[in-house]
Design a protein that fits this description.
Length: 462
């Protein structure tokens, strides 16, 4: 059937995969009564609608649109943890704490209301109210009907499940099964996609990315690799990118940025380039790759925000650790001996909260409690006003690991001490297991956002 490009109710621009309007919640595909999800089962959620306007100097990584437009943390494939909401409540500035990216500037008319209590999700789905961030040590179980990405994905070679992971429907006989769109015809459950959970381990580095419990797709990406330096030693590389969710094709932006940054680092380092210069060039290459995704015909259309993402990368060469970043994805140093050397955050966010703290206008606790805290002031994308890659180099004198991650993790363990408390003691010896454990921390905390973690042992393991 023809694909609608605008919502029939509110004329909001639609993406090809949208099943609900991101602005008003209107169902875009008629569903027979018998195919509706049963009570308590997972209901596909709409993607956050692009904001109507963009700022010249800030994007909100909460998905909160200008003048209080709404943030959708509970995308397709996850059940909202917010209660039934009126039209006015759907666009609630409290959503600014749930941890994903949007495109609007920080709202100036901030409502100081607290989070709404959780309740059963309405149908059709509406934007969820954010919940206060639990401590990293808090462990919660997924609610009934919410698929936990840690379960076996049951994927076939073509990437389509043999049977629905929720109700088991496999299309045998005359019964319904999973359609080509990845949605179960019996219960409406959105099936896992290839990028929902990805792990990779090399002898020197490992990484894991996960969709989380609230989003319909994974807009994070990572790349891990090694290059041989001219002196024969290894250079170990980890890149993590987080797509801006209310931009156009954020998943493609993060994947393109990771691929470009990783390739640039490998080539430059193998040729004997300085790690700091190589890192800056890699971030510029990533920016060019994301810029190339933008459609010139819609560049000035407020309903088509250019593809965008943040990026953070770490490189270990000999006794030197180099990090580079744009946005608020982070890198942390976690020593093996945490009783002696203190862990440390190696990056400084390009965000509204960081600017307030740096200017001395707010304490860190005050800044990060504000609904505007996660408004990013730097990103990769054709509409980025200013591209200013940050790089820094360190020479740790003790062994440890570098944790490179998206905010899907650090929203649950923000400070270096909090993160160090949940990094396994044997992380340097078993980086993949450590990355898996850290993803589990975020999932246990609620999994509000996509989660990506790379663990880089220092010094490089032989």
């Amino acid at each position: 059937m023809p694909q609608m490009t605008v919502c029939p109710s509110c004329a909001e621009h639609l993406e090809p995969e949208d099943r609900f309007c991101g602005n008003c919640g209107t169902a875009l595909v008629a569903s027979p009564e018998g195919d509706r999800p049963a009570a308590g089962q997972e209901i596909p959620r709409q993607q956050q609608a692009p904001a109507a306007t963009t700022s010249d100097d800030a994007r909100s990584d909460d998905g909160a649109a200008d003048d209080g437009a709404c943030d959708d943390r509970a995308s397709d494939g996850g059940v909202s943890d917010g209660g039934p909401a009126s039209d006015a409540e759907v666009c609630d500035e409290d959503d600014a704490h749930s941890g994903d990216y949007g495109l609007a500037p920080p709202a100036q008319n901030v409502d100081a209301r607290g989070p709404r209590p959780p309740a059963e999700p309405p149908v059709p789905p509406v934007a969820a109210a954010a919940q206060p961030r639990p401590p990293a040590s808090a462990v919660s179980q997924p609610r009934p009907g919410v698929a936990d990405p840690r379960q076996e994905l049951l994927m076939t070679e073509t990437g389509t499940p043999d049977a629905c992971v929720a109700c088991g429907a496999d299309g045998s006989g005359d019964g319904p099964g999973v359609g080509e769109d990845g949605v179960c015809r019996r219960c409406g459950h959105v099936q896992p996609k290839e990028r929902d959970h990805v792990e990779r381990e090399l002898p020197e580095v490992a990484a894991v990315t996960d969709r989380g419990l609230r989003h319909h797709r994974n807009e994070d990406a990572f790349a891990v690799s090694r290059a041989d330096l001219p002196d024969g030693g290894p250079a170990v590389i980890a890149v993590v990118c987080d797509g801006v969710s209310s931009a156009t094709r954020p998943d493609e932006a993060s994947a393109a940025a990771c691929e470009a940054a990783d390739a640039s680092l490998r080539i430059t380092l193998a040729a004997g380039g300085d790690p700091g210069t190589a890192m800056r060039d890699a971030l510029l290459s990533a920016a060019e790759a994301v810029n190339a995704l933008a459609d010139p015909e819609t560049r000035d259309d407020p309903h088509h925000n250019a593809p965008a993402c943040t990026c953070v990368s770490a490189v270990v060469t000999g006794d030197l650790l180099t990090v580079g970043w744009i946005g608020d994805s982070r890198a942390y140093w976690i020593p093996d001996d945490r009783s002696g050397e203190r862990p440390a955050r190696l990056t400084e966010d390009d965000s509204w909260a960081a600017r307030m703290v740096e200017a001395g206008l707010m304490s860190q606790d005050e800044a990060y409690a504000d609904p505007r805290a996660h408004a990013i002031t730097g990103w990769l994308g054709a509409d980025a006003v200013e591209l200013d890659p940050h790089t820094a180099s360190f020479q740790p004198d003790l062994p440890g690991v570098v944790v490179v991650c998206s905010d899907g993790l650090w929203n649950y363990a923000e400070s270096a001490d909090e993160l160090a408390a949940v990094v396994p003691a044997d992380a340097r010896a078993h980086p993949l297991r450590a990355a898996q454990s850290l993803v589990g921390v975020a999932l246990d905390g609620g999994g509000h956002d996509n989660i990506t973690v790379a663990v880089v042992p220092f010094p490089v393991r032989a």
